[in-house]
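NUDIX domain-containing protein: structure tokens wanted.
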Amino acid sequence: MIRPVFEPESLPVESTGADLPKVADGLLTPDGLRARFEQRLPWDPEPQESRVTDIRDPREAAVLIPLAIRSSGLSVLLTQRADNLSNHAGQVSFPGGSREPSDPTPIAAALREAHEEVDLDPARVEVLGALPDYLTGTGFRVTPVVGLVHEPFSLAADSLEVASIFEVPLSFLMNPANHEIRVFRWEGGERRFFAMPYPQQGMQAGAVGTSHFIWGATAGMLRNFYRFLLA
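Answer:
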């Protein structure tokens, strides 16, 4: 079935997670995250659509969820992908990409891709662990690798792949009140997805492009991160 093109930002919000429990503040710290990844608590990832789980032989990929240690708290480094890319063009994404034969592990792939895309020195990343693999509608099985990024570090976007780099407080992304479920309905069916719009600093309310629109696989992996921390 050919699925129609749609503008995710224009779709209505069906619900939010405002009634869900919040993550304890102590977990949103370097020490809290280190302790959580050392535990083996049972938890369930967010269910994925059957259209995704039915994909045969997905390509292996990895992304880095880079958590910058700032004086104001942890923040997530995200990228706006270049418009010329064949997959997820123009979307908000974590640094990452396909796993190459030279990558011994998904962690190695995530660190290599982050270095290539945003010039993040792997030596500045303290890898904490990985979340469950995430299947995308474009045929990738993505391993989300979580790591603390220690200062000092510098970033520089690879203009062929990355249009811009920005940061979002981890506390914002782990607050379920900011987790929207949007739905797209068409004659052949419907699709629901998570979205977490983050207001851009310095933009007037109501102006075009007032938020970084985090949605799709990136929002789905962040939602799994929330569920992991909530366990």
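The CA atoms of residues 12 and 182 lie 6 Å apart. The first strand starts at residue 13 and ends at 16.

Cheers.
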